[in-house]
Amino acid sequence: MLAAACATAAVAATATVGAPPARAADPGGQAFTIGDPRITESSGLAASRQHPGVYWTHNDSDDGPYVYAVDSQGRTVATVTLRGIEPRDVEAISLGPDGRLYVGDIGDNLGGKWPEVWIYAFAEPAELRDQTVQVTRYRVRYEDGPRDAEALMVHPVTGRAYIASKKQGGGGLYQGPEQLSASGVNTFRRIADVPWITDGAFSPDGTRLVLRGYFSATLYRWKDGAPSGDEPLSTPFQRQGESVTFTADGRALLYGSEGKDSPVWRSPLDDDQLPDTVKPLPSATPTPTATAADRSAPSSGAAAPPSEGASAGSSSSSADGGSSEAGTGDRVLGVAFLLAVAGAVFGLRRKKRDG
After folding, report:
1. Measured in Å, how far apart are the chain's first and last C-alpha atoms?
2. Strands 136-142 and 149-154, how do they pair?
3. What are the tens digits of pLDDT across the range 3-49?
4. Distances, alpha carbon 63 to alpha carbons 33, 41, 68, 81, 125, in Å
5. pLDDT tens digits, residue range 242-262?
6. DSSP assignment letter at 157
């Protein structure tokens, strides 16, 4: 009986080894810490398209015309100087479908006193190195008068720019013209009411919009050029939550904060929150025990591919990645042990019969 039980256990264990391991759930967590001592007021984030795992950020004010490229370890890998401008209160950064970075000098700590604010645009550098670039400056005014704002979002498909104003009790979402003009004033018109906002971001395919405040965030479906529905999102507790961006694969959000050595947190989206063009990952439900018919069929033994940013053999979370599976070696050792026990029992019975 013991030998039969060991043999049965060995077969079941072998079936488990051959089955694809279940994908572990992605818990999110701290992605990296911005360690550059120059970056003490990180107020915007934008995921690079040309450089996977790199994020563009900038200080709020009193820094100068600088934009920084930070990698997934929190290291500054490039400093870009914007030629010919004197920024006043830079609050946001966004990447457009034309490959340009748009920097929003749209803050107004005087409560909406500046007659106009500005957006600066420049081509995302193809090479990550310290450099000075020429920018295009766009003059911006609101149809209903000056106001404070901290969120600039450029739609990744249409290229249209949107600004969310910041006001106690709620602000507005403003839509710019179809194309920004460098020769005249660009008037932004209010299209929706929004809560207190410190930053926002479109998903890479443009079907989702996230707007965040200091302690909360909201997910919207983007339909026909306007936000639809509002779903609260869980957000990390941060000293002064000022920035948000989608990861390049659209599966998660990164939340940033002002302050020295500020941490950036990664929060994965649920399946029903994912952008329209992003498919859910394979289920994390454990694989059921193989049946006799399943065992008779050949098994590929292939595990589901890791999500973007996960390195082979790594089990730690990264800004754009998930986690890998382990334990196959332990199951193989277990099978060998069970087979050895079964062989010993059969040998003992045969020796007794021969005696």
Report:
1. 21
2. unpaired
3. 443 343 333 333 333 333 333 456 789 999 999 999 999 999 999 99
4. 20, 9, 12, 11, 21
5. 999 999 999 999 999 999 999
6. T
- Contacts of residue 340, defined as CB under 8 A and 6 or more positions apart, other chains included, come to none
pLDDT at 137 over 70: yes
| 56: Cα separation from own chain's centroid | 13
Q: What is the pLDDT of residue 22?
A: 37
The pLDDT assigned to 109 comes to: 83
Edge-to-edge order in the sheet of strand 226-233: 199-202, 208-212, 217-223, 226-233
Q: Which residues contact 169 (CB under 8 A, 6 or more apart)?
A: 196
Report how far residue 18's alpha carbon sits from residue 16's, in angstroms, rounded to the nearest whole number: 5
**Cβ atoms 176, 161 nearer than 8 A:** yes
Q: What is the mean pLDDT of residues 190-213?
A: 97
Which pLDDT score, from 0 to 100, does residue 271 have? 96
Characterize 340-354 residue by residue with b for buried, 16 or more Cβ atoms within 10 angstroms of its Cβ, and e for exposed. Answer: ebbeebeeeeeeeee
Is the whole-model pTM more than 0.85?
no
Q: Which DSSP string do the residues of 50-83 spell out, in sequence order?
A: SSTTEEEE--SSSS-SEEEEEETTS-EEEEEEEE
Residue among 276, 112, 147, 137 nearest 203 (CA):
276
Q: Using CA atoms, how far apart are residues 314 and 254, in angstroms rounded to an integer?
A: 21
